Amino acid sequence: MSIGANWAGTHFFGASAMVEARTITEVQETVSTTRGPIRALGTRHSFNDLADTAGTLITVTRIDPNPVLDTATQTVNVGAGIRYGELAVWLQERGWALHNMGSLPHISVGGAVATGTHGSGVTNGCLSDAVAGLEYVNASGALVKATRGDPGFEGLVVGLGAYGIVVRITLDIQPTFLVRQDVYRDLPWATFLDDVPAVMSAGYSVSAFTMWAEENLQQIWRKTRIGADETPTEPWLGARMERANEAGLVGVPPDNLTTKDGIEGPWLERLPHFRLDSTPSNGDEIQTEYFVDLADAEAALSAVRRLSDEIAPHLLITELRTIAADGLWLSGAYGRATLAIHFTWRNDEEAVSRLTPRIENALAPFGARPHWGKVHTMDADAVAAVTPRLADARDEFERLDPEGRFANAHLRKLGVRR
Length: 418
Ligand SMILES: Cc1cc2nc3c(=O)[nH]c(=O)nc-3n(C[C@H](O)[C@H](O)[C@H](O)COP(=O)(O)OP(=O)(O)OC[C@H]3O[C@@H](n4cnc5c(N)ncnc54)[C@H](O)[C@@H]3O)c2cc1C
Known about the structure:
Blueprint: E1 17-20, H1 24-33, E2 38-40, E3 56-59, E4 68-70, E5 75-79, H2 84-93, E6 96-97, H3 109-114, E7 131-137, E8 143-147, H4 153-156, E9 165-172, E10 174-175, E11 178-188, H5 189-194, H6 196-200, E12 205-210, E13 216-225, E14 240-242, E15 265-266, E16 285-293, H7 297-305, H8 308-311, E17 315-323, E18 338-346, H9 349-363, E19 369-370, H10 380-386, H11 390-400, H12 409-413
Parallel strand pairs: 1-3, 2-3
Antiparallel strand pairs: 4-5, 5-9, 6-10, 7-8, 7-9, 11-13, 11-14, 11-15, 12-13, 12-17, 16-18, 16-19, 17-18
Bound molecules: flavin-adenine dinucleotide.
């Protein structure tokens, strides 16, 4: 049986079976009646073999998400297979919002949460940070609830599918809000390096785009929250504001992107970069991403810039974002305000595997952590050195799944499972 590839076509799944569950009961039956290893698969947006197994893959994306709003606790409880974009529309129709979105609204909530997926914003935690509760099917097929405040909960949220199949998630929400998105071009690199945190704080969610080799950053996208942030003006730090809605990204037509012409709109139509009703990104790409302390931004970016001549020919674009510190054991932003340094590469595996260790070496002095869902070459020792709670998370996974049903080669290679 061919299960096909991930979204980018960079990994073909080797599982021997694939179950598209329609109910939570079916997930439970599958776990209790199948023999051997089993792994959850979301919407296949990870760039590596993290989700894969030699045994059975199971996806919860076909289960009715049936969102349940709790206005008293300001939370929504929803099926883990729902895509962020669909949940966002459902919440907006009822006057509610998520605190942030990733660049792509097509990704499943369960899969995004499991890898610490993030948007940008110095005060915005990663998407997983909004998780107030989880319901998962454990190794013996039982349905288990875990709630924020329970011992070990911080180890389960960014859980990499390592201890069970998450079927429902409770997320913090807030009243809906408006955002405007403004594009600035040609902010000088020197100005940026002078005070990276200040530039990245110039709005609710700020992204900087660069090819590294140029004197000026290509674009800054300032997503400002109406009524809370200062209204963007021109001039700003020597960068010019682009008034027309024409700023695309390499290979991505502006029509596929959310509105960036300074016009106010609901959070869900401004915080993601890509529109839910468009073709997401360009598909023919490989992504890598590393997380460093925001306090080290200037030194870390300068270290990567020294490789700019090698990087630029193979790069589609780099995006720089920020993430607020959190307490989730396997989050890239665990314990530190974070700068996320992302690379969207041309789909040239040889070039990416040559450059990735060079970038990892350049960022090693800053304790750079990898994005679990993207390509990297860090091994168990390197991962352990930058993941302070790795051993705690592993102990929790081993306790919950002593037979290793939810382990796979990728997790063992990283030292996340034994
Ligand atoms: C075009 C594009 C844009 C992206 N943008 C961003 C971005 O803005 N920010 C960012 O941080 N990342 C981004 N990513 C990376 C992406 O968010 C992560 O790889 C995410 O994990 C993908 O979610 P998924 O549903 O596709 O999960 P999959 O790739 O299918 O699985 C990822 C992991 O989640 C686990 N998992 C999935 N579902 C469940 C479940 N129900 N229960 C338990 N475990 C589960 C799997 O076992 C696996 O370990 C992007 C990726 C692409 C392709």
